[in-house]
Amino acid sequence: MGKLSxxxxxxxxxxxxxxxxxxxxxxxxxxxxxxxxxxxxxVAVARNWVGQGARSALERAVAHRDAPADAVDAMxxxxxxxxxxxxxxxxxxxxxxxxxxxxxxxRGAKLAVVTNKRGELTNKLxxxxxxxxxxxxxxxxxxxxxxxxxxxxxxxxxxALGLGVDEVLFVxxxxxxxxxxxxxxxxxxxxxxxxxxxxxxxxxxxxxxxxTFRDLL
Length: 217
What we know:
It is built from 8 helices and 8 strands. The chain is of the alpha/beta class. Helix content is 39%, strand content 13%. α3 (54-64) crosses α4. The radius of gyration is 17 Å and the shape is globular.
């Protein structure tokens, strides 16, 4: 697909691509499960559930514990309250992310976050991690009418950056990211280390899989 460094803009998924948020998400997940008398899960298990929004993770956790599906609505508020309070206690950028973003920006590339995480949580996480000033645009799960895998978030990010879909590279880690990029008409690569909901990186359907974030340079 040519050099990954040739693009004028980059659209980045957040959870599992830029930042390893699984530890704090798992803590909040287990907090919500415990409030409803359900056993918690190990972070290694939860890594297969997180990355597509709080409701999706809770649905998987509830199914894993054979609890009623309607428990999700009741658990969501508990999850969100806990997560807001410790959104970046154990979360941290993946290796080489901050350095690579700086190099891309230094070359004049425009950078955007495209995530299914709620806007308030996205902005809070970016601020607490120290990433708030790294991006020219942030498109969250409630920014557009439809979230990933619909094309709306990628198209909104391109509009905010002032770039065409053929000028940007979508960098993600999941089927939702690939689906969003494909529907919008963007080239897309996936990181090998992300939150894939049990799907092998090679089976996500991206144009390429990168082993490290520095492969973008």
